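Input (structure):
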C-alpha cells in the first residue's frame, strides 16, 4: 500500500520503501519490546521530512524481512516494485537492515540497467524510536539526495547508492565494516559520491550518468545463484577446497585471496583449481582486503592462478562480485560470455 504526504508546492516525488530492519523499529509502550512502526505515520516520527517541498510517499512490504534473512527474491520484488512505480517518482529510498545492505545495493545496481533516477539504500544502527537514533538523519539525507536535480531537471545521482553516516557511496562499492558506530559502511576503493555536512557536497566527477536520459531502464529479474565463496586461510584443507570448488551445484566460485590476489602455492591447491576449471567452473579472484586490487601478475602465486584460468575481480568487493555473477549467469548460459563480461566495468563496480 502507498501512503502519501500532502505538499501543495512539491518539487519532486520520492517513494520510501520499507523492507524491514532496525530503522523501522519503535518501542511498544505496552510490553517494552521493539516492533515495526506504521510507516503511514512517517512524518510523525521524522517531522523534518515535512520541511521539504516534495511529495514523500511510503510503501511497506507485505512481509517485513530481517536483513539476515534477505534472499534474491527480495531483490526481484524490489526491482519489480521500482519498475511499476518508476514513472511516478523522481527517486526511491529503500529502508533496509544493515547486515546485508551492501549485498542488496550491489544486486540492484546490476538488475537495473540504464538507471536515470536515484535508488538510495539506507538504514540505521539504532531504532528510529530511540532518542539517539541515527535513522532520522540517514532518512532525511537520503530523501534530499533522492529528490535532488540539476539545472536541466536531471537527477544529480542517478545510481544505486548507500547513504549512511553522512556519506553517499556507490552501492556496489560499499561494505559494512563496523557494527558499533554510526559510520557503519566504507567504500575502500572508490570515493564518496556525496558528503552531507552543513550542505550536501556532490562529487560530480565520480557519478555515473546515463547515455540517454529519456530511455526507460531495463529491469532484470533473472538470477542464477549457483555461486559459492571460498575464503582462503592458513591451514585450509584439500577437502574443504574440493567441496567448494568442485561441488556439483556450483557454477562459479568467488575466491577471497590474500593481498593482491595471492593463494597457496601447494600443488594440491593448484591441482584442485585446474580440476574445477576443467569441470567448467568460473573462478573469480577478489581480495580479502578492505581496499586494494587483485593483480595476479605481481607475485608468482597469483600468476599461477591466472595461468590456470582464474579470472581477476580487480578491485571489486565480494558483495559486488556475487551480484555481478548472479546477474550475468542469470542472463547467459554460456560461461565463456560470462567470463568475458566479468572483465568489463558494467556498473562502476571495478576500476580498469
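Output (sequence):
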Amino acid at each position: 500500500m502507498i501512503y502519501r504526504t500532502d505538499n501543495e508546492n512539491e518539487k519532486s516525488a520520492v517513494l520510501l520503501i520499507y523492507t524491514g530492519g532496525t530503522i523501522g523499529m519503535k518501542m511498544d509502550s505496552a510490553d517494552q519490546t521493539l516492533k515495526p512502526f506504521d510507516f503511514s505515520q512517517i512524518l510523525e516520527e521524522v517531522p523534518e521530512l515535512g520541511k521539504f517541498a516534495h511529495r514523500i510517499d511510503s510503501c511497506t512490504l507485505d512481509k517485513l524481512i530481517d536483513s539476515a534473512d534477505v534472499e534474491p527474491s527480495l531483490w526481484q520484488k524490489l526491482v519489480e516494485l521500482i519498475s511499476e512505480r518508476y514513472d511516478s517518482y523522481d527517486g526511491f529510498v529503500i529502508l533496509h537492515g544493515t547486515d546485508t545492505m551492501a549485498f542488496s545495493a550491489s544486486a540492484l545496481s546490476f538488475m537495473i540497467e540504464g538507471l536515470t533516477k536515484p535508488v538510495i539504500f539506507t538504514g540505521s544502527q539504532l531504532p528510529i524510536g530511540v532518542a539517539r537514533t541515527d535513522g532520522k538523519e540517514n532518512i532525511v539525507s537520503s530523501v534530499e539526495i533522492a529528490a535532488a536535480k540539476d539545472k536541466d531537471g536531471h537527477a544529480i545521482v542517478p545510481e544505486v547508492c548507500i547513504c549512511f553516516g553522512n556519506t553517499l557511496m556507490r552501492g556496489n562499492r560499499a561494505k559494512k565494516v563496523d557494527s558499533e558506530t554510526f559510520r557503519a559502511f566504507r567504500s575502500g576503493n572508490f570515493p564518496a559520491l556525496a558528503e552531507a555536512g552543513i550542505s550536501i557536497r556532490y562529487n560530480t566527477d565520480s557519478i555515473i550518468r546515463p547515455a540517454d536520459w529519456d530511455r526507460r531502464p531495463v529491469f532484470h529479474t533473472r538470477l542464477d545463484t549457483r555461486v559459492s565463496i571460498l575464503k582462503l586461510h592458513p591451514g585450509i584443507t584439500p577437502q574443504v577446497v574440493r567441496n567448494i570448488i568442485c561441488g556439483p551445484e556450483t557454477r562459479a566460485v568467488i575466491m577471497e585471496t590474500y593481498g593482491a590476489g595471492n593463494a597457496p602455492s601447494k600443488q594440491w591447491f593448484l591441482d584442485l583449481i585446474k580440476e574445477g576449471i576443467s569441470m567448467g567452473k568460473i573462478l573469480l579472484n577478489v581480495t580479502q582486503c578492505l581496499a586494494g586490487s587483485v593483480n595476479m601478475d605481481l607475485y608468482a602465486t597469483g600468476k599461477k592462478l591466472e595461468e590456470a584460468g582464474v579470472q581477476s575481480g580487480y578491485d571489486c568487493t565480494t558483495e559486488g562480485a556475487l551480484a555481478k555473477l548472479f546477474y550475468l549467469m542469470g542472463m547467459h548460459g554460456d560461461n565463456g560470455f560470462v567470463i568475458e563480461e566479468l572483465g568489463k566495468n558494467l556498473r562502476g563496480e571495478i576500476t580498469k
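Notes: The first strand starts at residue 2 and ends at 3. The chain has a mean pLDDT of 91.
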